Amino acid sequence: MGINLYVLCKQLGELCAAGGVRIALAESCTGGRVSSLITDVAGSSAWFNGGAVVYTNAAKTALLGVDAELIVEHGAVSELVAKAMAQGALRHLQADFALSITGIAGPSGGSAAKPVGQVCFALADHKGVDVKTMLFTGGRENIRRSAALFALEWMILHCANMN
Fold this sequence. Notes:
Layout: H1 5-19, E1 23-27, H2 33-39, E2 48-53, H3 57-64, H4 68-74, H5 79-92, E3 97-103, E4 118-125, E5 128-135, H6 140-162
Parallel strand pairs: 1-2, 1-3
Antiparallel strand pairs: 3-4, 4-5
Helix pairs in contact: 1-6
């Protein structure tokens, strides 16, 4: 994957700054990778409120207010949990929009219903929430990088449509 993620982060920052938009993240399987990429951009504090790395179910509940019963019923890797994570990040980090990522990066942890590489995303703003599920291939590193790339591209598209 030859795409320069730093260039995408700069583009996201320029769009956010131009529109006066502040963003937030809730990351599970990417372990804070997208937040780290964003903060590589000088001046990102002007448009990035922060991110929560919520790798465990307990962290999703404690830091973002995700209902523990929702996780038990649907699993941490589900569109409903991704939606709750994004809404929690939007609320707790006081952003204009927030994106969440939860998935199975592997190499273990997958099942027939939820294979390794399945990643659920949600993007919440003050108008509502959109959810998407993707299936990425390759090893753990490729799945995590693909999820970060998808997240950045979706945030750029969303921010461009806000302006």
